[in-house]
Request: fold
Amino acid sequence: MVRHGESPYDGNDRTRGLTVNGQLGAQSIAELLRGEGIDTIISSPYTRSILTVEPLAKQLSQEVSVCEELKERIFSSEEKRLPDSELFPLLEKSFLDPNLALEGGESNIDCQKRAVKVIKELLNTYEGQKVVIGTHALVMTLMMGYYHETYNLDFLLQTTKPDIYKMEFNGQELVGVKRL
Reply:
């Protein structure tokens, strides 16, 4: 799991790119994962996620496969990033009530179901292979939280931009997680 690098806070949530620090983080990820034997790279359709894993893909002469279902949680019908003054209280409420959704948005449960379905399919399709998933902090936390309760709001709030978590599976069973 590769959480995207730093991106500007303004603009359309789907098309926001990376800041200079975000671009440097993407290069660091490419260097860090170069020798990991990555077989495939899949990303959220959001520009900041794709741009974060693209240097690794280029280094490995691979393409980034885009998966719509790995997109960020939809908070409302608007495609603008919520300001932190609204986002953080909403996140707290969403972890207390995973079914909470704003009008036009999805709940943590809905987002988790969508993203975990992808993980399960990837585990079947790429069994025994190493897959990089370019994603977002909340989606990553919800996917990881499906497998173990320690991946919760506290975990989410301590993640960095970018961040990398290596998840190891035996079939569909999570057997280990290591922060890289």
